[in-house]
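[recover] target loaded
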């Protein structure tokens, strides 16, 4: 995809924002020594295992696009990362995807055992709402709206719905439309929520929120298509998680249904739609644009 966009130092943005998010998470989460130490060690093990921090980056970039303070968006950026990390811990459990590696390290249950891994996921999900509740109130978006936004993305109509539909589709032939249904919920919902929360922290206008919603939805779908492609084309070392797993468990993916080439074209088309959704920002959404391009071209 060749889109003309304003030059932007994305490596600098990602490095400074990852540092800020890591510092904030360190402050928000109970210390490793807090009793009972095992659960806090397990929570911290996965949250600081080296994830790409894309959801927090999108949240902060959206706040920037809406001319808000990134400091005000920081608790929300941390909250979405906690929910994301919880979902990965649970996804890796033997009862779900049964994975041994995540973020380049042994999975949570491999280190702490299944019981503690379930609880570490539960605790991170709960902690997310505690952190989100600390965000500064903005005139258009009181805390009730923020909490409902997070709960909606994480609940049984979105993230959990996607995971259930994904599990039920294993080993079955499903249509492209059914696969889109899964991707919208399993992946796009939380990415879209991250972007929307960034805008809400900046008291964005309804028109800006609409633009962010379309952007987040399409970037989220593109993210999962690329994730499916990388599962086929990259090694486990490159990904920091088991590659080739989708085909091994006969998971429904874009490469399996439409092939690699068409999957790439679909991801490009979705990213193009994400770019188009930023028109309302009239060039102020440079970080979001750079992130969308990065997510399309990423190799892990
Ligand atoms: C409630 C028991 C129970 C389980 C819930 C909701 C859920 C389990 C799992 C979510 C499904 C899931 C893992 C979706 C995939 C989303 C995705 C592509 C994750 C990888 O995101 P990256 O690449 O990961 O941003 P890093 O490690 O970089 O943060």
């Amino acid at each position: 995809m060749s889109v003309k966009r304003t030059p932007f130092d994305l490596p600098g943005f990602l490095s400074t924002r990852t540092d800020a998010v890591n510092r904030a998470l360190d402050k928000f989460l109970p210390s490793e020594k807090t009793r009972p130490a095992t659960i806090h060690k397990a929570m911290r093990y996965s949250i600081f295992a080296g994830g790409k921090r894309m959801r927090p980056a999108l949240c902060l970039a959206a706040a920037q696009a809406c001319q808000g303070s990134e400091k005000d968006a920081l608790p929300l950026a941390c909250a979405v990362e906690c929910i994301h990390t919880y979902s990965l811990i649970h996804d890796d459990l033997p009862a779900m995807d049964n994975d041994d590696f995540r973020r380049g390290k042994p999975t949570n249950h491999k280190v702490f055992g299944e019981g503690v891994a379930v609880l570490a996921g539960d605790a991170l999900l709960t902690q997310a709402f505690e952190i989100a509740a600390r965000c500064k109130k903005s005139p258009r978006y009181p805390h009730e709206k923020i909490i409902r936004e997070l709960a909606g993305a994480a609940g049984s109509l979105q993230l959990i719905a996607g995971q259930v539909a994904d599990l039920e589709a294993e080993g079955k032939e499903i249509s492209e439309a059914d696969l889109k249904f899964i991707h919208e919920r399993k992946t796009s919902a939380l990415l879209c929520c991250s972007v929307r929360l960034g805008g809400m922290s900046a008291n964005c206008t309804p028109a800006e929120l609409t633009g962010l919603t379309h952007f987040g939805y399409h970037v989220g779908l593109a993210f999962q298509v690329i994730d499916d492609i990388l599962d086929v084309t990259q090694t486990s070392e490159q990904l920091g998680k088991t590659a080739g797993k989708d085909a091994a468990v006969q998971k429904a993916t874009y490469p399996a249904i439409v092939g690699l080439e068409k999957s790439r074209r679909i991801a490009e088309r979705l990213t193009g739609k994400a770019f188009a959704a930023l028109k309302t920002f009239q060039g102020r959404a440079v970080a979001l644009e750079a992130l969308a391009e990065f997510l399309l071209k990423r190799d892990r």
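[recover] notes: The chain has one domain: 10-297.
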